[in-house]
Design goal:
This protein is of the alpha+beta class. The chain has 2 domains: 3-125, Impact, N-terminal domain (Ribosomal Protein S5, domain 2); 129-193, Alpha-Beta Plaits. Helices cover 28% and strands 40% of the residues. It is built from 4 helices and 10 strands, in the order βββαββαβαβαβββ. It has helices at 34-47, 77-86, 106-122, 141-154, and strands at 3-6, 12-19, 22-30, 53-59, 64-67, 92-99, 127-139, 157-163, 167-173, 184-193. Strands 1, 7, 8, 9 and 10 form a 5-stranded antiparallel β-sheet that branches. It has a 5-stranded antiparallel β-sheet with strand order 2-3-6-4-5, sandwiched between helices. A hairpin with a 4-residue loop joins strand 4 and strand 5 (64-67). Helix 2 (77-86) packs across helix 3.
């Protein structure tokens, strides 16, 4: 079972810090594709068209990227990406907007500022996600109570129930459990742990 940290779906985390008159605005969102990351970056850039630097990093299961956007090489995007890697964060795009305040921070100061902006944006908002599998079960009404009891006993999440000629349940299983006999595999997905 794969577990990792990210943000809740459809949530945008934000932060703001001021260091030596420069404003650093952090924005982060859970994304599942490079296209999703690029769309979010574009929307932040459009919102802050007058900013000196719009730095970002994203980390997906199959790719990652960062950019310094005019800051000295390795002082902005790279520290953001390194923090995401260090904290085992995936499926995320982190953008930091800098409004230059007229005071140079130096390379060490920039690394600290972009890292702190990332921490302030993400740390309190992260949730743990896990890889799960979804199954569909069909039963008659007399078997329904047995499936409910089984699910409760195994702490299995019931995602959906449809009552028609039969009862159809969609359940979410971690790799700890095998599905009941006769289950139809729907596919893998991710569910966050509470």
């Amino acid at each position: 079972m794969q577990e990792y940290w990210s943000l809740p779906r459809d949530f945008i985390a934000k932060s703001e810090i001021v260091i030596n008159k420069s404003r650093f605005l952090g924005y982060a969102k859970m994304v599942t594709s490079v296209d999703g990351a690029q769309q979010f970056i574009k929307s932040v850039k459009e919102q802050h068209y007058d900013a000196r630097h719009v730095v970002y990093a994203y980390r997906l299961f199959d790719s990652s990227r960062s950019t310094d956007d005019g800051e000295p090489s390795g002082t902005a995007g790279k520290p953001i990406l390194e923090w995401l890697i260090h904290k085992d964060i995936y499926q995320i795009v982190m953008v930091v907007v800098r409004y230059f305040g007229g005071v140079l921070l130096g390379t060490g100061g920039l690394v600290r500022a972009y890292t702190q902006s990332t921490i302030d944006t993400l740390e309190q908002n992260l949730v743990k996600w896990q890889s799960v599998k979804k199954y569909r079960l069909k039963t008659d009404y007399s078997g329904y109570q047995n499936l409910i009891a089984w699910a409760k006993n195994k702490n299995v999440k019931i995602d959906n129930v449809v009552f028609a000629d039969n009862v159809v349940l969609e359940i979410i299983l971690t790799n700890n459990y095998d599905p009941p006999q006769g289950s139809e595999y729907i596919g893998s997905c991710f569910d966050y742990l509470i």
